[in-house]
């Protein structure tokens, strides 16, 4: 029974570790400490291993629960009903939680408020576009976090952030903000600006 509890605990731990790099930006947003967002981005290269380990551990736990028990002829009392933490129901809850955790990077964006601003540009010659290279983003949650912080600045017309390309393309009114303020906002998330090019 203790072995089952250890398997379930290991399954939860590996599922949490697999998504920690994507959960941290959302937790940082909720806590109001956006600088912590990239704290666990170093875990991203290990995510496939954590996912695989979670599946193996929970698969083995289910195998242990569902395999037929050997019949022993004895006049013993019937097996007692297992406590909740050792039941199939609890293992089902843990498995569902693990699936939710493993899928987190695919729905992290729903936790970020939509920032729709009405920008009035008086002179089109004031519109400037910059491409900023960013180090440390690993998933859609990172994109949303950077986008959210950049859009807090006044004068941002459009911001497109891509973790796959490792960049942000920002269109802004240079009379209301500037490249340095945008860079500061991005660095404030915990991710690092490595380069910037005006377009």
UniProtKB/TrEMBL annotation:
One of its GO terms (cellular component) is plasma membrane. The chain crosses the membrane at residues 46-63, 90-108. Involved in mercury resistance. Probably transfers a mercuric ion from the periplasmic Hg(2+)-binding protein MerP to the cytoplasmic mercuric reductase MerA. CDD domains: HMA. It is found in: Cell inner membrane. Belongs to the MerT family. Residues 128-194 form the HMA domain. This is Mercuric transport protein MerT. Keywords: Cell inner membrane, Cell membrane, Membrane, Mercuric resistance, Mercury, Metal-binding, Transmembrane, Transmembrane helix, Transport. Its main location: membrane. Gene3D superfamilies: 3.30.70.100, bacterial mercury transporter, merf. It holds the Pfam family MerT. It is a multi-pass membrane protein. One of its GO terms (molecular function) is mercury ion transmembrane transporter activity.
């Amino acid at each position: 029974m203790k072995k089952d509890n250890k398997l379930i605990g290991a399954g939860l731990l590996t599922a949490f570790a697999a998504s920690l790099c994507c959960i941290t930006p959302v937790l940082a947003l909720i806590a109001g400490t956006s600088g912590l967002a990239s704290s666990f981005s170093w875990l991203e290269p290990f995510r496939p291993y954590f996912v695989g380990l979670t599946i193996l551990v929970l698969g083995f736990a289910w195998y242990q629960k569902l395999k037929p028990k050997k019949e022993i002829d004895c006049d013993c009392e019937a097996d007692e009903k297992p406590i909740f933490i050792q039941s199939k129901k609890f293992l089902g809850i843990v498995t569902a939680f693990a699936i939710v955790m493993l899928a987190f990077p695919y729905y992290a964006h729903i936790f970020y408020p939509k920032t729709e601003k009405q920008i009035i540009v008086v002179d089109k010659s004031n519109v400037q576009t910059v491409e900023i290279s960013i180090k440390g983003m690993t998933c859609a949650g990172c994109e949303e976090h950077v986008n959210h912080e950049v859009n807090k600045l006044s004068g941002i017309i459009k911001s497109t952030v891509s973790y796959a390309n490792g960049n942000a393309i920002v269109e802004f009114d240079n009379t209301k903000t500037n490249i340095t303020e945008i860079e500061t906002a991005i660095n404030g998330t915990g991710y690092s600006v490595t380069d910037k090019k005006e377009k």
